[in-house]
Write a structure and sequence with these properties.
189 residues; alpha/beta; Dihydrofolate Reductase, subunit A; eight-stranded mixed β-sheet; two-stranded antiparallel ribbon; 5 helices; 10 strands; 30% strand; globular
């Protein structure tokens, strides 16, 4: 069965976005891009919520062809352009996008079907509302939490509306030069 892995920036006080949904407080550097690259190497499908997908779609299709692209821009753009994208949304229409599947109902069943398909892993970059929804159905297998050294105070929580305790195992850590700490967790099932 394919695994769903989440890579998410989180404030030290547990928020993934400020009270306006902003993420201008996150720290990103080449080391973190390398981690994202490792995850894309292990994945051939990506899940986004509508808002994150629209943000990604505005940048990644042509990022590798812009003047002076970084190594990460080239690699991630190539990956983005070839992988199927699964969007969790009740309002989006993917007209004209053959590599986009929108799931608007029967979330647990539809995601389980994708997990049961042959292939590599499935990755989620950001998309907190999608993560919240998938957590309700125990569909996430791993987290890479990038803990940023900032206290946001209020905003979108990393975890919310959990109906039961979830036990995880810490399987790895990494401290980045920028002061961000990556925590890799898998779920105890």
């Amino acid at each position: 069965m394919r695994r769903i892995v989440v890579l998410m920036h989180v404030s030290l006080d547990g928020f993934v976005g400020d009270k306006n949904g902003g993420i201008d407080w996150i720290t990103v550097d080449e080391e973190m891009f390398d981690l994202a690259g490792q995850l894309t190497d292990q994945s051939d499908t990506v899940i986004y919520g509508r808002v994150t997908y629209q943000m990604m779609e505005a940048y990644w299709p042509s990022a590798g062809k812009q003047p002076n692209p970084s190594k990460h821009d080239i690699e991630h753009s190539e990956w983005y352009n070839k992988v199927p994208k699964v969007i969790l949304s009740t309002t989006m229409n993917p007209a004209g996008k053959p590599d986009v599947q929108v799931i608007s109902s029967n979330l647990a069943d539809e995601i389980q079907k994708i997990k049961n398909q042959k292939g590599k892993g499935i990755v989620i970059f950001g998309s907190p509302s999608s993560v919240h929804s998938l957590m309700q159905f125990n569909l996430i297998d791993e987290f890479w939490l990038l803990i940023n050294p900032i206290l946001v105070g209020d905003g979108i929580p990393m975890f919310k509306d959990l109906k039961e305790k979830k036990f995880l195992t810490l399987t790895g850590t990494k401290i980045f030069r920028a002061g961000v700490v990556a925590l890799h967790y898998t779920f105890k099932r």
